[in-house]
TrEMBL record:
Gene3D superfamilies named among the record's database cross-references: Ribonuclease Z/Hydroxyacylglutathione hydrolase-like (3.60.15.10)
Entry's Gene Ontology cellular component terms: cytoplasm
Pfam families the UniProt entry points to: Lactamase_B_2 (PF12706)
Domain Metallo-beta-lactamase positions: 96-289
Signal peptide: none
Annotated protein name in UniProt: MBL fold metallo-hydrolase
Molecular functions per Gene Ontology: N-acylphosphatidylethanolamine-specific phospholipase D activity; zinc ion binding
Amino acid sequence: MGERITFRRNEGLITVKPHWRGNPVVRGRFVNRRHKAKHGIGNIMKWRFSPNPQRKEKRRENWDPRVVPLHSLETVGGNVLVWLGHNSFFMQLAGRRIMFDPVFGNIPFVRRKSRFPADPAVFKHIDYLLISHDHFDHLDKPSVMLLHANNPRMKLFCGLGVGQLIKSWCPAMEVIEAGWYQQLNDGQLKITFLPAQHWSKRSLNDGGQRLWGAFMLEGDGLSVYYGGDTGYSNHFAEIPELFGVPDYALLGIGAYKPRWFMQPNHISPYDSLTASEEMQARVTIPMHYGTFDLSDEPLSDPPSVFAEEARKRNVRVMIPALGEIVTLKEANKQ
């Protein structure tokens, strides 16, 4: 007798994929469509005690990424994007200010390896906080609470279950939870929560209780895909079918070695470019690298491999400095 599957979504939001019933839930836990996450202590110990071919290279490395200090948002106009390290971004699109997975400092047990390029106090008048999933390097309680204190009208848009956790920290925050393929409309801005192949967990027994995902943002004639944390799967290929070709794709490239352990849940620089090609993205911007040492490769490895492989494949990419203001341009102006 097979396990009973139920389906969850937010019935108050529209669903952009026809016939999608909602996210599958097995024994109270969200699951991926094609991959079952396996993070048992046995695999973790095997990884930690396995030899790392790049160990000496990591020890020799003097990682010092380029930083363009962001002193203020007062003069920032139009549609822009600012990489703040790891998966954290500030975006201004269609007259709205948006923060993605903000982490302003260290996370539990892991120190930050790159300087945060701004005083967090500059992030004012934020309209939306987008959280891709509940892992500590993406959902940081002190950063969220500081943002909420400075932006009491900011709304949270996130996966099912994640909002309940954040609401326990910030009871006054307006929370909108979504299942995959569910969309929020705000004037000229549309935000859609989309699939990712990943997992969720913040404590011993809460694995799979909160949904993980990606985002598509559309506004002012622009579309920006934000991949969250994900392994490589067929969810990239369906993006053009649902939204047309994205102008920008923000895709992870780091925490990818060793592949036997990381591959199901983190795309490599090579996978990232394959995903970009499948989406036919006009410009690809890397993320999830250079900030926290979470895997076997040196911090400089992912952007170097990504840039070289993009050159070989003739894929258009942009690798901004930390804090650099990137102007988002429509296709006919790129």
